[in-house]
From TrEMBL:
<dbReference type="GO" id="GO:0003993">
    <property type="term" value="F:acid phosphatase activity"/>
</dbReference>
<feature type="domain" description="Purple acid phosphatase N-terminal">
    <location>
        <begin position="50"/>
        <end position="137"/>
    </location>
</feature>
<dbReference type="Pfam" id="PF14008">
    <property type="entry name" value="Metallophos_C"/>
</dbReference>
<keyword id="KW-0862">Zinc</keyword>
<keyword id="KW-0325">Glycoprotein</keyword>
<dbReference type="InterPro" id="IPR015914">
    <property type="entry name" value="PAPs_N"/>
</dbReference>
<dbReference type="InterPro" id="IPR041792">
    <property type="entry name" value="MPP_PAP"/>
</dbReference>
<keyword id="KW-0732">Signal</keyword>
<dbReference type="Pfam" id="PF16656">
    <property type="entry name" value="Pur_ac_phosph_N"/>
</dbReference>
<dbReference type="InterPro" id="IPR004843">
    <property type="entry name" value="Calcineurin-like_PHP"/>
</dbReference>
<dbReference type="InterPro" id="IPR039331">
    <property type="entry name" value="PAPs-like"/>
</dbReference>
<dbReference type="GO" id="GO:0046872">
    <property type="term" value="F:metal ion binding"/>
</dbReference>
<feature type="domain" description="Purple acid phosphatase C-terminal">
    <location>
        <begin position="353"/>
        <end position="410"/>
    </location>
</feature>
<protein>
    <recommendedName>
        <fullName>Purple acid phosphatase</fullName>
        <ecNumber>3.1.3.2</ecNumber>
    </recommendedName>
</protein>
<comment type="similarity">
    <text>Belongs to the metallophosphoesterase superfamily. Purple acid phosphatase family.</text>
</comment>
<dbReference type="Pfam" id="PF00149">
    <property type="entry name" value="Metallophos"/>
</dbReference>
<dbReference type="InterPro" id="IPR008963">
    <property type="entry name" value="Purple_acid_Pase-like_N"/>
</dbReference>
Amino acid sequence: MVAVLRNTTYHVLVLLIVTARLVHGGDYIRPPAGRSLFVSLSDNHSKNTPQQVHISLAGDAKMRISWITDATTPSIVKYGKRQGTLDALANGTSSSYKYIIYKSGQIHDVVIGPLETNTTYYYKCGLDSNPEYSFRTPPAQFPIDFAVSGDLGQTEWTKSTLQHIGKTGYDVLLLPGDLSYADFYQPCWDSFGRLVEPLASQRPWMVSQGNHELERIPLVHSERFTAYNARWHMPFEESGSDSNLFYSFDVAGVHVIMLGSYTDFGPDSSQYKWLESDLKKVDRKRTPWLFAVVHAPWYNSNTAHQGENESTLMRESMEDLLFNARVDLVFAGHVHAYERFTRVYKQDANKCGPVHITIGDGGNREGLATKYKDPQPNISMFREASFGHGQLRVVNASHAKWTWYRNDNAQPDTTWFMSLALDPTCAQSNRV
């Protein structure tokens, strides 16, 4: 059941957004913030029934299945390639966490595989009486389709974003932070898990953390990212990282680096040293495309979130690493709007730098960031404060097509990218 939570501040936001100056001309009116949703359990749900099922890539030819039960049940997954015939079994672990007076259900974590690529598998979590789910593994070769959406939250616009993404036939979803917007109220994490389950149980969701995942209260709950780390276990161990807050993975000729904006990133930090090591291992003949994902954008012409350390200091610390490795694209969230930059390095256009894309427009309850700097910087190619999502189709080793869609199906932003690994003008000898 989905409940709608009304907030009187939304009426004020409606007036602000409708009267705001459009970044681009025309009659388009930006939508207001959506009403908040809370997804409760169905009436026929038992304590043994799996809920909040989601999957993620977990190393070579493997998939992590995660779910929650109210009761203590076996952490096993039965799976197979034929519906109703689940002839393989994998065991895993379970855990729970406490947050002030809240205690989570049993969080189950099972890695299955090896799996065949581009194949549909059917699976059950836990007891035989539980429902059967299915997922499709990503392809082994190009083309591959990524859905990209940040700052999702749980509103009517979030629901619209998920519906649009569900129609794209994507292979892997990238989420650059700010998932549930629980903001200390832990039942909202459960609601978010139920909201995204229809999609997240069928395709791997690869996520990073944002500021709304911190949930640290001095003297009351000093640990950061408690719920995020417990509920969204990403393949950090498989990528040689010592933290769930930063990791990497390979899929179909693409190497993706997920970085943590809210953990140490200086040259002496564990994250910096891991990133340096990870980039040295990248073989652009095997993975000609190289992407990075952060939460706080390194480039941003919106007036929101200017001058924050997690943006400026992280860029100053790590930009050389990404530039020298010839990272193709950097996705970010945090700013509740969409913006695409040209290839850039050290705040100037550079044909060998990555394209930075801010896509924090998933549908969060805080609404849109509607004000931009004027005039628009030369390095900013397209910007719009509207709810939407992105789709990246990596067609082959050299070319990829990027499209950003507004949720209301207005004119999208579409462009093509060429892999820097195959650009002879950006060879190793040109690096700083």
